[in-house]
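pasting for ref
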Amino acid sequence: SLSQMAFYFSNLILQTAKFKVSALDFIDKALGEQYFYERIKSAIDYTLASAGETLSQESFHLETSLSQIQVPLKKILYFETSPTVHKVILHTIDERIEFYATISEIEKKDSRLYRSHKSFVVNPANIERLDKVNKIIYFPNGDSCLVARTKLKGLSERITLL
């Protein structure tokens, strides 16, 4: 009958709406104030947790006894040793940050980065061009840094994988 079919489809719609659709749940306001507030809180908690995971996964994070830094990985071009002892300079798409750390600490902190030279750790994802003859790495903003002869093959493979 038509009424049974309507009941079936309305139940199906409610059941489907209970599953997460993207980051938020369907929240039926007709089911009572307590349920409504619980679902809102759950949706907010879920969104905050997801945002935290994303920020963490997509960022380079380093904490030492003297420094703490968190930068989106997609903005990182390269790190270089600073003329100031025990400091490193981070070059990003839009800024330059100097902080206390060593190139070795940077290299070990994130496997997505690559130690191209004794003085440089680069983000292969942001390399625009690799000049194998002159052993120079070029970035989209015009910056460049060196690559050691012994690191050319490994860096080429990392760039090819991207």
